[in-house]
Design brief:
Layout (H helix, E strand, L loop, with lengths): L1 H12 L62 E4 L8 E8 L4 E4 L4 E6 L9 E6 L2 E2 L3 E5 L4 E3 L1 E5 L5 E5 L9 H26 L1
Antiparallel strand pairs: 1-2, 1-7, 2-3, 3-6, 4-5, 7-8, 9-10
Family: Belongs to the universal ribosomal protein uL24 family.
GO cellular component, one term: ribosome
Protein name: SUPPRESSOR OF VARIEGATION 8, plastid ribosomal protein L24
Length: 199
C-alpha cells in the first residue's frame, strides 16, 4: 500500500494523470529487455576419471552388476588377441563383475614379493593375470578349431552350450564331475602341504 501511495504522489508531482499512458506503446530500451538465452542442444558432459575400485557398475543395492559370459571354469580356450595370441589353455577362475578370466600359464606377470621375516630374502614370482573374456574363444581339442558358442535344449530338457562349428557339446555331466574331483584334490593337497611344512 505504501508503494502505491508513493507512486501516486510521484505521478501527481509530474503533473501527469495515471491514464495519460493508456493505450500507448513505450519504447523498450535494449538494456532493459530480458536476455533471450537459447537452451543448449548438446549439454556439456562432465567426464570424471574414476579409480580402479570405483569403475564397477552397480545395482541400486550397491552390489556389483554381474555380466553374462560365454565361458566357464574348466573350458579350453584359445587367445585370439593380445600379447599371448594363439596360446591354448584352460580357465581356472572367472570374475563376472568385470568379465575377465584367469587362464593357466597364460598372461604371466612378474611380481616382486617382500620378505615376510627379517632373515628371509624377497622373491620374484610369476602370477597369472586376468584377460578380458572377449579376447578368447572356445577351442575344440578333437577338431583343433576355435568356435563361437551356441545354446540349445536337449531331449531331456537340459540347456547346454555347444560349439557352433563342430556341434560338440561342452556342458556334459562327465566334465563337471572331473572338475569337482580336481577341485577336491587341490583342496586336500593344500592342507596336507601346510601340515608337512609346519612339522
Amino acid at each position: 500500500m505504501a508503494a502505491m501511495a508513493a507512486l501516486q504522489s510521484s505521478m501527481a508531482g509530474l503533473s501527469l494523470s495515471s491514464n495519460s499512458f493508456l493505450g500507448q506503446r513505450l519504447p523498450i530500451l535494449p538494456s532493459l529487455s530480458p536476455l533471450h538465452i537459447k537452451p543448449r542442444e548438446n549439454p556439456c558432459l562432465i567426464v570424471v576419471k574414476l579409480k580402479r575400485w570405483e569403475r564397477k557398475e552397480c545395482k541400486p543395492n550397491s552390489l556389483p552388476l554381474l555380466h553374462k559370459m560365454h565361458v566357464k571354469v574348466g573350458d579350453t580356450i584359445k587367445v585370439i588377441s593380445g600379447r599371448d595370441k594363439g596360446k591354448i589353455g584352460e580357465i581356472s577362475k572367472i570374475f563376472k563383475h568385470n568379465s575377465t578370466i584367469v587362464v593357466k600359464d597364460i598372461n604371466l606377470k612378474t611380481k616382486h614379493m617382500k620378505s615376510k621375516e627379517e632373515g628371509q630374502p624377497g622373491q620374484i614370482i610369476k602370477i597369472e593375470a586376468p584377460i578380458h573374456s572377449s579376447n578368447v574363444m572356445l577351442y575344440s581339442k578333437e577338431k583343433e578349431v576355435i568356435s563361437r558358442v551356441g545354446h540349445k535344449m536337449l531331449d531331456d530338457g537340459k540347456k547346454v552350450r555347444y560349439l557352433i562349428k563342430t556341434g560338440e557339446i561342452i556342458d556334459s555331466d562327465e566334465n563337471w564331475k572331473q572338475l569337482k574331483e580336481a577341485a577336491k584334490e587341490e583342496t586336500e593337497v593344500a592342507p596336507a602341504a601346510d601340515t608337512t611344512a609346519a612339522s
